[in-house]
Each structure stands twice: as C-alpha cells, then as structure tokens.
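[Meeting: bench + compute handoff]

Bench side (C.D.) handed over the final construct sequence. Compute side (W.E.) agreed to return the predicted structure before the next meeting so the bench team could plan truncations. Sequence as handed over:
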Amino acid sequence: MNQKTYRVAVVGLGAVGTRMIGTMQNHDRFEPVIGFDASASALSAFREQAPDISSTNDFEAVLSRDDIDVLYVSTPPKSHAEYVRHGIAKGWRIFCEKPLGVDIEDSTGLTREMNASGLEQAVNFVYSGAPAALRAKQLIDEGTIGDIVGAELDVRLSRWPRAFQAHAHWLSTRAEGGFTREMISHHAYLTLLLLGMPSLSGPVLARFEPPQEGSETVMLAIWDTALGRVTVSGVVGGERHDTASYRILGSKGCLRFDNWYNLILESTAGTETVLDANQHLPIAAYHGQLDQLAVQFDTRQQRLASFNDALAIQKLIEEMVA
C-alpha cells in the first residue's frame, strides 16, 4: 500500500531546524519542500547545505504555497505562537519545537486555538520516539526494576550555549534561553511519560549570570510525581565533557539514560547496556520520532506530545526560571 509523503514547510533554519530537515530528507514519509528564515546568514548557510530545497526570507512566500501538509516551527520561542497561528489559519498540520513560548497566558490561548482547530498537532520533545524511552517504558511495565521510588536528573555543562548553538544569542538570555528551558524540559517530558506529570516541590535554588539578563548557571530543584520525587541538578562551568544523566530509581534496580539516548540497567551486581549499538545513537531517536509522527498523521491518534502536554511542561519550567 502506498503511504502518503507529508510535504513540510520549515520555519527557522538554525541548528535544530536544519538538523530536522536532514532527518526528514532521510525519512520516506516526510519531504521538506521550503525553508524560511529572516536571517540572511542562516539562509545563506542553508542554501549551501541544501541547495535543492527552496528557501526564502519572505514568509508570505511560504503562506502562498498550496502544496504544504505540515508546518514545522523551529524559531526562537517568543515567535512560535505567531507562526503556529499562521499555520492554523492555513489548515496545515502543526509540528512545533518546544516550548510553545515563554508567556504562559499567550501559550494557554495558543493551545486553546490549536485544540479548537481540530488540526493534527505535535510538539518536539526528543524522547517521544526514542528507543531508550520506549524500551524503558517496557521494562518498567514488566517490573524489571520493581517499584519506582523516584528519579535523579543531573546535567553538567562546560559552557552555555553549547558549541553547536553558540551563534544563537537568545539561548544565553534569561528571557528566552537557558539550559532549563532547552534541556531540562525534555527530561520533564520524559518524567511525564514514565512517572507522571512533575510538579515543583518547594523552592528552587538558581543562579543567573549576569543576574538580571543572563541565563542560569546553576539550577537545583525537586519535582513531585505520582511515583516519587525527582531531584534536579544542573550546573555550567569548568572545562569538562558535557553530560546529561537521568536515572529512574526502582526497588530492584535502576534505569539510567546516559547522555540522552543510551539506556543502562543498573543493580548491585553491576550494569548492563539495554540497547544495541545503533539504537542509542541520536539519529535513532530523531528517526523514531518521525516514525511516530507519521503514524499519528496517518491514524489521527496522538503519538507525540500534544499542545496540552507542552503547556503543562512550560508552566513547570517557567516556574523554575522565574
């Protein structure tokens, strides 16, 4: 049976947007057909990378097309709502980077509009189709680690923004950026999937540098979930190898997400890598996410995060960085 190939307009040609385009070009269910960015430098770099894909700095040129199935939004957070609303008006399926925005009131209104439209919607959290997350859910359901008693999240970074996003100044600002919004939000969504929706427990200890305008260099917090507490720790500084570790604590063992996508089973007897050599590669998570998105669009059954999910995570994250 022939399956539909979804034609995609991409808004935002920075590091994340161009990575998504590359993933879509290697996926048989998605075809990026036009890219938009207001930045001349981003547009020039994209044209060198993907000369066969149409590109423009005029958003009206995107809106004027009648061959678009999906609008993918990958701009800085404050502009997400603007472009999503244009996509809703066009009747396109929406695939948006997290967060929906940084203003809770506006994101609440956007979520209401998205839901009322009846259009297919998805928000990009990296664990939506990652083999590590799917396998962890299976092992938890099978009782491999016993009863869940909590989790630990530990993020250690040499500098922020990271090298591959150093050109994106907004990531270093308190208004839109910071590793809590950019990285910890993904683990908040993973927590939602595996332990239930997290909520902030008690005060947050955070340091922002420079104090008023800069993003955080320290973030310490505790989340409560239906299955136990999650301790959250993030630090920037020191010449080091960046690490992100998320450990689910069980009465019979633990599951550790090592540097995002590797999954390790831990016990007093030692450790065991759960995934094969290909499954823990980042590309497996990116490709798996598009697999899930295609199934969602085919069946109209939600597979990736909804706008309701993303709004709940945004409320938690904005409370932490307030």
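W.E. noted at the follow-up: Residues 131-321 form a domain with the Dihydrodipicolinate Reductase; domain 2 fold (CATH 3.30.360.10). C.D. will use this when planning the next construct.
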